[in-house]
Amino acid sequence: MKKKLSLMLCLCIMALTLAACGSADPQDVDYGGMSYSDLQSSAQNLVTSIAAFSEEELSAAIETNEQYAKQYAKQYGREYTEAEAVISLLQSWLDTTSDVGTFVGLGEFSIDKTSDTVTVDQIVNFSERDVDVTFVYEYNYLTEEIEMTDATADIVYTLGEKLEKAALNTLMGMGTVFCVLILISLIIYCFKFISKVGAPKKETAKAEATKAPAVETVNENLTDDLELVAVISAAIAASEGTSTDSFVVRSIHRR
Q1: Chain centre distance of CA 197
Q2: Residue span of the signal peptide, if any (predicted)?
Q3: What confidence score (pLDDT) does residue 188 get?
Q4: Cα separation of 89 and 136, whole Å?
Q5: Which residues, other chains included, contact 150 with Cβ-Cβ below 8 Å and sequence gap of 6+?
Q6: Looking at the predicted structure, is the pLDDT value of residue 198 above 70?
Q7: 222 within a domain of the structure (yes/no)
Q8: Are 73 and 79 in contact (CB under 8 A)?
Q9: Bridge partners for 96 per DSSP
């Protein structure tokens, strides 16, 4: 019994040790040549600058970045991913922040690293609703550094709002399925009437075929009849002693 307890205690200590080793401090992790503070300052400076722009200035910034991205693609033959990411962020910022109130300040900051991808989330506080700005960095093996490939701004929904949206999506999906099933049932039900429409035509054709039987034409073989008449005439002439030269045999056509 004591051996079992000591073994279980050793296993628990090993599990706690491995968990402690796995949960490294995010601020001490190397993110493809950038530190935690580098990513934080870059994200917060960009968000603060965007929050200070008006809608007209944001639209002008989008056009400027689009022109610069096109020039870069023509010159180097590849997309400028960071410029494309900034354009995506500016467009989503315009769409998202139109109904969230006025800018208040910056909120929680977090970093998530998985293999070659680093995801940075910066919460932005507004007077009516918070916004989550997400930056996605991917490791570039050519430059051996991470580069920003995508950036978006999304509204932060509460748990109740998420559950409500999930319920609405479920109801819409179920409603669509039921509508399709009802439509299929109606189509199958209409097959009865389609078959009845074609039935009278077939019955009429059968009735006409019954009323008008086929008339068989009988071809009379008149050659045998003429020979028979000639033989009978010759026999009568022989019995009476008359000549058959003046006999003319005519065929009678029956009607």
Answers
A1: 38
A2: 1-19
A3: 86
A4: 11
A5: 85, 88, 134, 135, 136
A6: no
A7: no
A8: yes
A9: none
How many CB atoms sit inside 10 A of residue 225's CB? 13
pLDDT digits (tens, 9 = 90+) for 34-82: 889 999 999 999 999 999 999 999 999 999 999 999 998 988 888 888 8
β pairing state of 117-126 and 131-140: antiparallel
Q: Around Cβ 83, how many Cβ atoms within 10 Å?
A: 20
2: pLDDT strictly greater than 60: no
Average pLDDT, whole number, for the chain? 78
Q: Give the H/E segment covering residue 107.
A: strand 103-114
* pLDDT tens digits along 219-251: 555 555 666 666 677 777 666 666 656 656 565
- Identity (one letter) of the amino acid at 99? D
pTM of the entire structure?
0.58
Q: Are 90 and 50 in contact (CB under 8 A)?
A: yes
Q: By C-alpha distance, which of 53, 46, 70, 38 is closest to 152?
A: 46
If we measure between CA atoms, which residue out of 154, 136, 160 comes closest to residue 146? Answer: 136
Q: Is residue 35 part of a domain?
A: yes
The one-letter amino acid code at 155 reads I
Percent of the chain with pLDDT over 70: 66
**62-70 own/partner pairs: CB under 8 Å, 24+ apart:** 62/87, 62/90, 62/91, 65/90
- Structural domains counted in the chain: 1
Q: Which domain holds residue 86?
A: 25-156
Would you say residue 249 lies in a domain? Answer: no
